[in-house]
Design a protein that fits this description.
By secondary structure, this protein is an alpha/beta fold. It has helices at about 20-35, 50-60, 75-100, 135-145, 170-180, 210-220, 250-260, 270-280, 295-300, and strands at about 5-10, 40-45, 105-110, 110-115, 125-135, 145-150, 155-160, 165-170, 185, 190-195, 200-205, 225-230, 235, 245, 250, 285-290, 305-309. The protein has one domain (about 5-115, about 165-309): Acetylglutamate kinase-like (Carbamate kinase, 3-Layer(aba) Sandwich), CATH 3.40.1160. The radius of gyration is 19 Å and the shape is globular. The chain starts with a strand and ends with a strand. The structure holds adenosine-5'-diphosphate and phosphoric acid mono(formamide)ester (CP). Keywords: Kinase, Transferase. InterPro entries: AceGlu_kinase-like_sf, Asp/Glu/Uridylate_kinase, Carb_kinase.
Length: about 300
């Protein structure tokens, strides 16, 4: 039976603007094609904070020029970001596979993820999105009831809540595609956050942390491995200090100890460890690899990367 992996793509694997995304995706597609050549079934998920911020601005600031303008909620912008990024990834991966003589369908599943309306995260927004604003623009956002933080010396940015992913709505569709040996892009940008109201799913004004959604997806498809492709080849302890040390293969217990000691950035590296540990502990013979997007092959051979097993 083929081994199954979930790959989470970070900012560097996608770039920010459309031209950057086109170039970055070409390289990222090579890593995905390597996994297919190695015989893995692959589900992919990805970041979206820069893109969803851009889409939100386009819809809600510049969109006002259109006579039929109505405000677009964050959940709709998340859905758009899944389509926008999925479209480029689908084609980039398809083309790379065809260049290697492999034909395989690549599909994006618009994926909703249920969140808890009472999640504490709704009281303290932390997810930073989109472009820098000046003080006037920041005040306008605040008047609309939106949260804005100041990054000293840089300007102001919109922040939204990042509730925990509870359940992936379209999981059966993702599993059906993987069972048919197809490549799936799912839960992009952490998934479209929705709240259950009887049979209705109401979009939430939030953006889910994509690493946590990647862990949920890996659990849901019963993956063997969670691969998180980020901007660093290996995670460090004592980052930026004289005794900085790169982490190679570590146990779950070691990973937990380093987390407790506060070695990992709370909005970048920590969720990757949380996702990895939850995924590994929820099953058997599972592992996680955190490395840069161009080091997948070496990481799978345990020649580089940070491996939790
Ligand atoms: N202990 C650590 N070791 C390595 N990088 C860390 C660590 N803690 C925080 N980081 C930061 O995390 C960043 C990667 O996270 P981020 O850019 O948010 O991820 P993503 O690739 O998911 O978009 C690195 O560039 C680094 O600055
Ligand atoms: N949704 C999400 O976590 O996006 P980023 O990785 O771009 O912050």
């Amino acid at each position: 039976m083929k081994k199954r992996v979930v790959v989470a793509l970070g900012h560097r694997a996608l770039g920010t603007t459309l031209p950057e995304q086109k170039i970055a995706v070409k390289n990222t597609a090579k890593s995905i094609a390597d996994l297919i050549e190695e015989g893995y079934q692959v589900a992919i998920t990805h970041s979206n904070a820069p893109q969803v911020g851009m889409i939100h601005a386009a819809m809600n600031e510049f969109g006002k020029a259109h006579p039929d303008y109505t405000a677009a909620p964050m959940s709709v912008c998340s859905a758009m970001s899944q389509g926008y990024i999925g479209y480029d990834l689908q084609n980039g991966i398809r083309e790379e596979l065809l260049n290697r003589g492999i034909y395989r369908t690549v599909s994006t599943v618009l994926t909703q993820v249920i969140v808890d309306p009472y999640d504490e995260a709704f009281y303290t927004p932390t997810k930073v999105l989109g472009r820098y604003m000046n003080v006037q623009e920041a005040n306008e956002e605040r008047k609309k009831g939106n949260y804005v933080i100041e990054e000293p010396g840089k300007g102001f940015r919109r922040v939204v809540s990042a509730p925990n992913p509870v359940k992936i709505v379209e999981l059966d569709a993702v599993n059906a595609l993987l069972d048919a040996d197809q490549i799936v892009i799912a839960a992009g940008g952490g998934g479209i956050p929705v709240m259950e109201q009887d049979n209705h799913l109401k979009g939430a004004s939030a953006v889910i942390e994509k690493d946590l959604a990647a862990g949920k997806l890996a659990e849901g498809v019963n993956a063997d491995k969670l691969i998180i492709l980020t901007s660093v080849e290996q995670v460090c302890i004592n980052l930026g200090q004289k005794n900085e040390e790169k982490l190679g293969k570590i146990t779950v217990e070691q990973a937990k100890k380093y987390m407790d000691e506060g070695h990992f950035g709370i909005y970048n590296m920590l969720p990757k460890f949380q996702a990895a540990i939850e995924f590994i502990e929820d099953g058997e013979n599972r592992s996680a690899l955190i490395t840069s997007f161009d080091k997948v092959k070496e990481g799978l051979k345990e020649k580089t990367g940070t491996i939790i097993a």
